[in-house]
Amino acid sequence: MATNRSALLGAHLEKSEPSELRPILTSLNGDNSWLMSFPVPSGEGATRPNPRKAYYHIVWDPWFATSGVAVTIASWVASIARGIESKAARADLVDHADDPQELMVDAILISLHYTDHLHEPSLRQFDRRIPVIAAPEAAATMKGWDYFQTVVPMKDMGNDGSDWQALHPNGPLPTWLTPFRLRGKGELNFATALVWSRGFRGEAAEPVQPAHEALWVSPHGMRMDPPALQAFLRDVTKTVHVLAMLHPLKESSLWGRQTVHGVMGGLAVERALEGPKYWVRTADAVFSYSGLVMLRVRDVRRTLDWGLAEEERLAGEKGEAVVKRRPNLVQIDSGDSMVLE
Length: 341
Fold this sequence. Notes:
- By secondary structure, this protein is an alpha/beta fold.
- It has helices at 5-14, 67-90, 120-123, 136-145, 227-234, 263-272, 304-318, and strands spanning 24-27, 34-39, 55-60, 107-110, 132-134, 151-153, 155-156, 177-182, 191-200, 209-217, 240-247, 251-254, 257-260, 278-281, 297-300, 329-330, 337-339.
- It has a seven-stranded mixed β-sheet.
- A hairpin with a 2-residue loop joins β12 and β13.
- This is Metallo-beta-lactamase domain-containing protein.
- InterPro entries: RibonucZ/Hydroxyglut_hydro.
């Protein structure tokens, strides 16, 4: 379970060596806005933007209610990152001289060009010097704002997923952090993989070997048959371990066509990934809609227990074996954090 941010982070950082730091997820709105804090790999101090920081902090899809609230939230996000760094410094993990003018958010990542992901009033509250990595359609829109100094489009995985490192967007991101998109059947049904590459050392005489872990984020879910997903499962998972899957439980439909593949889609992907350590609920708020078109949008709340029972029922109808393993589903409430061990 996720828990109080300050206590959790203090307990983790106080007992860690720099090489033992783990990624941290902080929920920013209780839905699909996140602060993703990735530890800077050992030996990378010379190449990171700020060698005094222990983490590289990415804001994912910031979406807050009004511009007035966003002003407060943007400062709050920076204070969360600053708090993480201050605790790392107090634990003697990094040298740190507090500078109130220092940028604490290192990058912003936008996964989709729809307004609940690409929310201009919220985004304009962040410092324009923060680099943005965005889905190509969102990047084109943001460049038209003429606000952020650096906007770089994310790359898409093709049918051959063997060379995922070639999908690094270059530009502002460090070489050890690679986000890329997996396109699905519809523009809503995609996934984003964020691969964190770190070095680890066995015996002192052995060279440092790379290890790759990923966050796999699909806010609306996706079917299993898109070529990009099949390429990821076939090739990328040979070298990349999916540590956490961020995926909703709810289902949604528009005019009778399913647009959010909730718990059943998540279970299918979770099984195919052979069990991420965490299934983190994201984009799971159930809304009521208004307006002529929006009245045709329907959200249905689902639970993991319902999905497991349905999975067993469908397998029985087909005469197939049932996977009994229960995913480790976690809920991170707004403002709380979780260390991904």
